């Protein structure tokens, strides 16, 4: 039972999915061959020709399984061959009709999934158009379609029909570092970092900027707020708190936000006493 096989014949697939809870059926041998032959004849409605006896447990399973197979909309036949993943989808559908998958089969499927996870690879189910007579359908008109494994198995795929398509499992490596970086990027996109202007508020910033600009151009604070620094800010000889007090006196009714916010806004527009001291230290050195 290899899930990476290119195809499973119908009877092999049904034995894998529904009969492998019987330990004697799992290895290739006489017991498995008898069951395979009987099941094929039952699907072809020729079981009356068989003289080979089967255990009652297996006969009950066959009597329960065959009607479900015949009712399946895919019109399954004993000579049908499909990729294992397509059979898995059919098996789940048959389970919904009252024919549960064997525990052993599910354990093997889970082991295959676990190995993929440990190998850090993602299994995708790819749908490709097959040849139809002598005509090959255009890859542009009918591009490959890839489904996540669980989506393919459990979702109701529109117009799903396994017959005209070649279903194949392909693997894509999973870069754990890349996934972590992408997760960080998504988080950053979801909550973008605020700019300094955003932190104080655009309205507060623009009002503070206009007051300081008017005070400098009109020399309302003579010899203390005279020019701009190399980084584009105005230069004030005193502290931010001193500048805030003077601005509120010169512009009554403005700059009425909290001192903390207003001081942050002033720092964006004016280089106060700390800037001048830094310049002096750099000049002395």
- List SSEs in N-to-C order: EHHHEHHEEHEHHHEEHHEH
| pLDDT < 50 runs, ≥5 residues | 131-142, 275-285
Oligomer: single chain
**What overall form do the CA principal axes indicate?**
rod-shaped
Helix/sheet category? alpha+beta
Order of strands across the main sheet? 4-3-5
Number of structurally distinct domains? 2
**Percent helix range:** 40-55%
How big is the Rg?
38 Å
Quote the average pLDDT: 76
Strand percentage, roughly? 5-15%
Calculate the terminal CA-CA distance, rounded to whole Å.
80 Å
Question: Main beta sheet: strand number and arrangement?
Answer: 3 strands, antiparallel
Query: Count of helical segments?
Result: 12
Number of strands: 8
Characterization of this structure:
The chain is an alpha+beta fold. It has two domains: about 10-180, no CATH class; about 195-285, no CATH class. It has twelve helices and eight strands. The protein has helices at about 10-20, 30-45, 55-70, 85-95, 105-120, 150-155, 175-190, 195-200, 200-215, 240-250, 260-270, 275-285; strands at about 10, 80, 120-130, 145-150, 165-175, 225-230, 235, 270. Strands 4-3-5 form a three-stranded antiparallel beta sheet. A three-stranded mixed beta sheet has the order 6-7-8. A two-stranded antiparallel sheet has the order 1-2. A hairpin with a 5-residue loop joins strand 6 (about 225-230) and strand 7 (about 235). Helix 1 crosses helix 4. The longest helix has 16 residues, at about 55-70. Mean pLDDT is about 75; it is low at about 130-140 and about 275-285.
